[in-house]
Amino acid sequence: MPSPDATLEIKTIASDAVPVRVRAGGAWTFSGLKAQRSQIEHGLAEIKKQAPQSVAWDLAGMVELDDTGAVWLAEALRDGQRIEARPRHREILRQVSEGMRAPREPVQFDPLAGVVWLGETAADAMVHLRDGIGLLGQLALDVAGMLRRPREFPLLEFSAGIFRAGVTALPVTMLVGFLIGIVLTYLSALQLKRYGADLLVINIVGVGVVRELGPMLASIIAAGRSGSAITAQLGVMRVTEEVEALSVMGISITTRLVLPRVLALAIALPLVSFCTDIAALVGAMLVTKFTLGITPGAFVQALPQAVEVSNFWIGIGKSVAFGFAVAFVACHYGLRVLPNTDSLAVGVTRSVVASITCVIILDAIFAIMLRNVG
Amino acid sequence: MVDVAHGEPVPEEEYVIEIEGLVNTVGSNTILHRDLNLKVRRDEVMSLVGGSGSGKTQLIRVILGLKRPAAGKVRVFGVSWDDPNAKKVRDARRRMGMLFQNGALYSALTVYDNIAFPLRERGGLTEEDIRGIVHTKLAQVELNPSHGKLLPANLSGGMVKRVSLARALALSPDLLILDEPTAGLDPDRSEGFVRLIKRLREDHRFAVVMVTHDLDTLFELTDRVAVLADQRIIACDTLEVVRQMDHKFVQNFFGGDRGRRALQHG
Question: Does pTM surpass 0.80?
Fold first, then answer.
């Protein structure tokens, strides 16, 4: 049998010592209050205008009372003296009245909030830098230790890392490389055709892909794919206290978790980058065949003359550095995740943004340093 | 105030949970429960006991509608979870509160927002009303308003349980499901928690289904015990009756050293 709807009757007897008589009945619950909501709200608002001592309450007819009903009533009851109620309802009303009297947190305007935020952000950046340098130093010590005791090298994690970051990344990276190769060659060919410098397209695309685009594409995809995965994995390990469990067992976190991932990506990324180069050049070859009429054979023959081999090695060398940077940044953020889901989401986002930024900064540094090479 | 003793409201339904002929599988075809029947009355505390791996948690998941059974009928407040009337299902869900074993608090939300979350989701209340209810719930589980600002990561195990209980009670449920409510708590806190549940039941009159291995909690709170063994509920009766059963699990569970100790104290 459904509970009856809540009711509220108000009678005023002007001659009486307590002129306002209020009778509540039915189910004063969330669902019971729905039907007569506006009338009850209006009635309670009217009662609140009266002095508490001039209102007599009869709540004995209430068959049910939940927190919603109690909150509504408690606001109107305030310091009312004449209240008839069942003991259980009286207890609920007492608890809710106390709950509503809980002190409020004062909301204060802080004129220096902006300055404080700036200071905190700067301090946070310094903490990141300090921890990053610390992790790098620890990693260097671990590598030195590994050279002395190569048997302790976590080979399984390392090979798994190469497989995940390298082999499984190949399809998507090569597809992107192939498509970029097509777009870049097509646009370059359109421009160069106008000036009759058709053959230069091999120089432009060759150098661009091998020296810049291949490593950059591979690194950005690695940051989004492998970097985010590393941060999420280490972050979840932090949340579930697996990282702490390693420390307690006396196992170095950097040796077991950071080193294999950083080395794996530093080795896998040049290989991925190499495959991306090939895919992009195949794309370029196809476009030159159909737009400029350069045969694949002629393209392959012209490529070594157009692109010095140093460009290839620069591309590969940069990939090593980018791979290291992406995995290092991902590990750094992963190990800083706090035990809550929000921190994990923020950590992964920051990790991807920071590693892509890091790759671009490194690329700019390489471009300046190696401007006279190739 | 004047106390008035009146009759209590007429119950809406006699049983809050009705399970008939339940067949529950794990993986592709491993049968966990076979022809399982269970009924929980609206005014009782029913404890579900069974050995590890007997499928207590899986049964709770079926009751909660988190797992679809392979066969059989499961009705909570008379509503089947696969009822096409979404509103009916939603309303039935909102009449249940669940205390997960590890709290399952939203880690990114403060204690206050965790308790306010179901109230805000249900709608129909002002932020002022919600504030009143959240502080009432905090007080009911013996926490201070200042605890509202804390994040779950800053709470002790006992506090996580209490906040989780406050959240489970936020919508004034008619049925509270407790999964190992005292697991991970020291004896003092376990006892305090049991007292808390008892007191809340006196005030709010909700039915309780509880999975527990803690015999003290069992003896202290339970009206009826359902024993899950041999893929079904082999007994569902008062403690006194169940304890007399000639079944290996029952004899080991209640007749072992721990069982006897709890009986002496209970």
Answer: no
For B169-218, give the DSSP string. HTT--SEEEEESTTTT--HHHHHHHHHHHHHHHHHH--EEEEE---HHHH
Measured distance CA(A289)–CA(A295) in Å, rounded:
5
Identify the domain containing residue A249 by its residue range: 130-369
Q: Which two tokens stand for residue A371?
A: 């401007």
Cβ within 8 Å, pair B136-A90:
no
- Identify from B1, B115, B122 which residue to disrupt to test chain A contact, counting A C-beta atoms within 10 A and taking the largest count: B1
Identify which of A68, A87, A90 has the shortest CB distance to residue B129.
A68
Q: How many domains does chain A have?
A: 2
Is B77 in a helix, a strand, or coil?
A: coil
Q: Are residues A96 and A151 in the same domain?
A: no
The beta-carbon neighbor of B153 closest among A66, A100, A338 is: A338
Task: Give tens-digit pLDDT for B177-210.
Answer: 999 888 878 888 888 888 888 888 887 789 999 9
Q: What's the pLDDT tens digit per position in A53-81?
A: 888 888 888 888 888 899 988 888 877 77
| CATH number assigned to the domain comprising residue A95 | 3.30.750
In a domain, A123, yes or no: no
In a domain, A202, yes or no: yes
Q: Are residues A83 and A136 in the same domain?
A: no
Distance CA(B79)–CA(B74), nearest Å, equals: 8
> First CA to last CA across chain B, in angstroms?
36
> Which of A67, A72, A238 best tests the B interface by mutation, with the highest count of B CBs <10 A?
A67
CA distance B139 to chain A (A): 7
Q: According to DSSP H, which parts of chain B are helical? A: 56-64, 86-93, 111-122, 127-140, 157-169, 187-204, 215-221, 239-243, 248-255, 257-265
Give yes or no: residues A283 and A243 share one domain. yes
